[in-house]
Amino acid sequence: MSANNRLTRSEKHTESDRLQRSPLLIMALLAALGAAAIYILGQPALWRMSGVYGFLFAALGVIQIGSAIMVLGRPTRRRVLFALTAAFVVFLLWALERLARIMPPPDPWIPVDSAIGFTDYICAGLEIVAFAGLAAVTLLRPRPQPKLVWRVLIGVAFTPLIFLVLLASILGIIASSDGFSGAGFPAGTVPPKNLPGGKISTVEYCRPAGVPLAMDIYMPLAKDTDGPAPIVLYVHGGGLWGDRKMYGLGASQANHKGALFSSLQQELNKEGFVVASIDYRLPPGTRWPAPIEDAKCAVRFLRAHAEDLGIDANRIGVWGSSSGGMLSLLLGLSGPHAGFDRGQYMDQSSAVQAVVDMFGLVDLNDFEDAEPIAQFLVRNAFSTSAEVLRAASPITYVNQDAPPLLILHGTADPLVRPRQSDQLAQRLQEAGVPVTLIKVQGAEHDLTTPGQDPSPEKLTGLVVDFFVKNLK
């Protein structure tokens, strides 16, 4: 009799502990599952960076997904509290890195930011929604099942919120996996030596704060001389997003087409040039000046491995568009005194011998009349401080020792006003630096606008001729 009484009391307690599968609970669980999927998809790159962080986030992912499934199957207050705790722990780990900056390196959130630099913020936002929703569910007292009409009205009220959670989850999942092509660093990495001609090889060029950075090297099929080849480095654009890959979400955001990458890579290879393309750490997940530090490290890497790569350390060019154009300008203009040279291969120079800037950012304090998206990118990628923006602006570093420059800018560019390139060209001419400015009539924030003049094919030839003249 006593055992039966105890069983009855246990059953009664379990029954009182059960919760309804309300729209609020469903929304919170979707947010938890979306957040977990974001950081789980970055696992391959995270394990390469740190086994400790890899194990930690893998365990959290299993716990978070498992607890969400358990709650969905049988929603009890204890299970909801467990799922709530898991969401809080993940958010806490994010806050300790992004807000407090006290977690030991490497930064465990960088793999999910490989295509969009704020994917970790999406993940953190979903965890907040999950935590708040689950907390509200546990605090609300159980009530009788409402009438059908009220259930319908509640469902309709929560539908937009659930849709936003799903949308954020989908965006974060695609970004963290770069269109399901693999987050972060690729598996097929090779040493920078004896790379096959006519092929693309991926090498690790630097590891700032424990984060491996990838470089794709496009070797020419055959060199027209027996000596070392000149090399041209491509720095992708995008600002807060983009990567070096030719596929996936990052590729579309970097606008490689607008920078004439494919045609230039092919034509330069035909001329016997080696072509390299890099990833770099993206803001706002990584603070400025990390992108230019990475770009300079890439140049130092090329010099340190010049013999292995079969390249001439004294014939290095660079090109890029938009934010990549800005980084290319900084490579050409800012010397060691700027403080951007940090990390590996410090016995090598990061100087380049020729620069092609395609509608790059020149003066970051001159964006008052730009499109709102351009102002947003500048504020979030760099700072709102005029002094910081000045220190990040290429025009600050114009000097008479700068290498030859070719500047291409569309007359209809709504994001970076053509006057920025005008001012840079004028300052360079005054300093006695060889510079050519080509205004592309009708072109917008790329060099493939229909009807533009010169055409993309003509511009490709001009850029190749510039590098041949100055490097070959």
* CATH architectural designation of the largest domain: 3-Layer(aba) Sandwich
* Helical content (DSSP H or I, runs of 4+): 40-55%
Fold-level CATH name of the largest domain: Rossmann fold
The share of residues in extended strands comes to 5-15%
- CATH superfamily heading of the largest domain: Alpha/Beta hydrolase fold, catalytic domain
Q: SSE order in H/E notation?
A: HHHHHHHEEEHHEHHEHEHHEHEH
- CA radius of gyration: 26 Å
- Work out the number of β strands: 8
Using the coordinates above, name the CATH class of the largest domain: Alpha Beta
Number of helices: 16
Class of secondary structure makeup: alpha/beta
Q: Please give the order of strands in the largest beta sheet.
A: 1-2-4-3-5-6-7-8
Question: How confident is the prediction overall: mean pLDDT?
Answer: 90
Q: Mind describing the biggest β-sheet?
A: 8 strands, mixed
What separation lies between the terminal Cα atoms?
Answer: 97 Å
Write down the overall geometry: elongated
Domain tally: 2
- Uncertain segments: 9-13
Describe it.
The protein has 472 residues and is α/β, with parallel strands linked by helices. The protein has 2 domains: 18-176, no CATH class; 200-471, Alpha/Beta hydrolase fold, catalytic domain (Rossmann fold). It is 49% helix and 11% strand. It has 16 helices and 8 strands. Strands 1-2-4-3-5-6-7-8 form an 8-stranded mixed sheet, with helices on both faces. Helix 3 (43-49) packs antiparallel against helix 4 and helix 9 (261-270) packs across helix 16.
